[in-house]
């Protein structure tokens, strides 16, 4: 019985969504896609398919690593700005201001080319155990993207920590919880929950920032599409396909975050 | 050279922000009061722009945009127009900014107390007068925080034009750094310039926000 | 027949050029990056160098109003297609791959391709010598294509937006070697940064299929008029000594290479 009710509402919803003008619009969109598929050049795809898969993998890897590391950095950054001593709060705030006040592209180039230009002055760097990593491009890409995410998300976490009702923390203290335990059991979970909607937005923005690493010789999906453009002199098709790839990843991200939000009960604690 | 780059950056940011604002006003009104087709098309526009990296959009619009315009001119029998890097840069970033400001302004219009608009309608104002006299002025205080954020994004997004070779601040820095090999110093200096622009903007915008908020009840939670 | 048509086109072009009150505008695309001694920028931001002077000489010869238009390197060929620019004169080698998309004038210079690397390492510009090395090249150049074809046993081939950045990473030690035009690399080796870190490893083995017969001006395939004008201009400055005069300012040898190759 209840299944039937659900069915009816779903059907109504679909019908409500599929108004006549939408059907026309979808038909036009499909026609454009078909035209693009027929009249544009796609014969290069098989040659670059494997490279593209590797590029997509690299992009997603970079996104996940920098978001996870960046979030781990953002929590203390937000926390010390709300409750920390001044000698921690001021540097944290300065860090967030600098990251948010300058373009990521510039930060990336400063780290990669700027630091690189300093290497010849310090020959011992080449003997150090870090050298095999310093030689490659990806550590700089990961570092720049992580710091950037931490800067933006640190600001969000600051607001989230400050937004948790005082009463909650006082109640926890009345239970005799230690400061560490309050943070772990009450404060952090509630702040994270508050930050979750912006977290989704910030992560999509982070995805949109990843193609910048192509300028420091990292081979992500953006750089694969540039390579196709340069080797075949086909201009639009690789870019259109690239836009489609990013839209798909964005859609998946939004979907995953919605699932995550739905899993967490509306009234935590 | 850095200064010339800075001027270019600021011109583009201001141009893109201004045109983006116009697109945003039109878009917000279209989304709220437009017909079903307009609303769906605007939804597609804002979703697309917000899901695709700015860098990809810039490349697509920079090459495809000028190509399309020239083909259109060709079809209409006009000679191809010469689109300068400056104009193309402003145009591309304006389209990106327009999508974001559509959303900001839509939220701001929705935040206007409904009674004000109804009162205007009761006075027999035409929709155009209503928009000019009531809706636009009344939404400003609600829109300013979001728009301030967009302005800061605009100044930073101009750096992306370096990748299409436009000589704004980041590209000028890159050239100067390449010529002198002092990469670290120059990139650091450019970072300082961007930071100054951001901080100055923040001061000015905060003042503007306070001005427009005069006489309004303070929002719960915004007081410290 | 073709020659007659081409001649006719030139005549028409010249007549039009002479008839018009002002010379027609030709937008010359170049990538805004230092590539000394062919391209360099002074403190005020204006461009000079051997290739700039050659462009100006050719344009003056043909009474073309040439405007230098900056476009990033990898956007040059697309920009030619979309009429953002009318010709590419930016040390672009004439290759079969590029000729599928655009047309070229006759060559106006041709210099050998070389490899440079860190002073501390001893190796040759051969596939064996570069085995296991990290090589940096500029994207979508003949050098990138050559390295990918011949130095297959290199540890990695890194592609940079500009040759400047590849040189920079060579001094930083992130790459072991870079391959590019020998003259451009020579200019880098003579700079302070280049002197300190690197030396010449030698010329690469010739491969005309990839490296092409030399550098020419890229034009649209349907723009035979401009191509003929540029060819006439190149020939004229070769004949009247202007080419030699400019070259003497920058080099102590003739960069034109072997005579008699036309395109």
Automatic annotation (TrEMBL), chain A:
It comes from the Bacteria. PANTHER family: ARGININE ABC TRANSPORTER PERMEASE PROTEIN ARTM, MEMBRANE COMPONENT OF AMINO ACID ABC TRANSPORTER. Gene3D superfamilies: MetI-like. GO terms for cellular component: ATP-binding cassette (ABC) transporter complex. Keywords: Cell inner membrane, Cell membrane, Membrane, Transmembrane, Transmembrane helix, Transport. NCBIfam families: HEQRo_perm_3TM. This is ABC transporter permease. It is found in: Cell inner membrane; Cell membrane. The keyword Transmembrane applies. SUPFAM superfamilies: MetI-like (SSF161098). The chain crosses the membrane at residues 21-40, 60-83, 104-125, 233-257. Residues 56-257 form the ABC transmembrane type-1 domain. It is a multi-pass membrane protein. GO terms for biological process: amino acid transport. GO terms for molecular function: transmembrane transporter activity. Belongs to the binding-protein-dependent transport system permease family. HisMQ subfamily.
UniProtKB/TrEMBL annotation, chain C:
InterPro entries: Solute-binding_3/MltF_N (IPR001638). Gene3D superfamilies: Periplasmic binding protein-like II. The keyword Signal applies. Residues 1-23 form the signal peptide. Keywords: Signal. SMART domains: PBPb. Residues 25-254 form the Solute-binding protein family 3/N-terminal domain. It comes from the Bacteria. The keyword Hydrolase does not apply. PANTHER family: ARGININE-BINDING EXTRACELLULAR PROTEIN ARTP, MEMBRANE-BOUND LYTIC MUREIN TRANSGLYCOSYLASE F. This is Amino acid ABC transporter. It comes from Kumtagia ephedrae.
